[in-house]
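ARCHIVE CARD
Drawer: 12
Card no.: 0347
Subject: one protein chain, sequence and derived structure
Cross-reference: see card 0346
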Amino acid sequence: MQFPNTWSHRFLREFQQSSLRKLIALTGNSDPTEECRFDLRIRGGDSLEIYHGLERLLTVQSTGDERIELNAPRRYRQLPEHEALYVMGLTLDSDQLATGIDQYLRAASLLADERFFRDRKEGYWTNQLLKSYGVCWQSDSPWLMFDRWSSIRFETDAEEDAFYRPLHQEQLAKRAKLQQQDRANWGENGFLNRAVDILAIGPEQQLVCFELMLGSNLPSLYWGCQEAAFNRDMFSMAKEYLSQGIKTLVEQYVELGLLPPTCKSWLPAKNFESVETNLVIIDPPDDAEVWKRFDLANEILGIPRLPVGFLRSSQDSPSILWR
């Protein structure tokens, strides 16, 4: 198993020397309160994903020999700005390519804005958190946030199944037992997500997982701490296999200018020793009965009390208030 989200040395060098380097400016200035309309994420296989809130607007994929492929969701492919990209020539030595991608992203984001960003839900706050505690990280920041939808790569399906099956069976059995008592309150049996919403590092060189949920999403909200604990458990079990890849990813973001160089002081010399987890609820409900059921679910599931934070769509900065 390994952490998948890194680039080869070859593509990192080619990207730095190409006009695509200009795309880094899309993340905006160093003001952490300024809206982050575009979030750039390194992905495995020498690819770059660009998000507008919850929506992936574009994937830039290296095919070798300084050529790239572009992949955009179908709903944006009819835009004139998208069609123009293929006239420019999809090579890293094209001076026009970065400008063309910039123009496409701005056109596509206008279509995606209301549904995936302006609603100020998970996607909006993911962008804002990754900017405030990533691009704008400072030594007194509580976390260094550097990746979204972080997962573990396995060599075979059998290896993946052997890793997750015990974790899934134990947790979902507990959930099913509770749901059988009262489906009106606890809903149907769901699943445990194998991707961490935001991955971060703390000042004690510990890994920190963040699970983001909507306060209006009932009954899924009741399983928020279980999901957050599952994130912690899977990364704890795999941390010795993931540590080098995670450190490489942080170093590559520093080289690109998407993280400040001083943040590398938070990287451990060897492996990460511990993993923590947090649940962040966007627009938490005011209903006291909801919180009684929330605490009851954690008690019955045997989930130790975890840090639970709040973000509200009305606030200007991504400052998390803790319950």
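Annotation on reverse: The chain has two domains: 9-118, 129-322. The mean pLDDT is 93.
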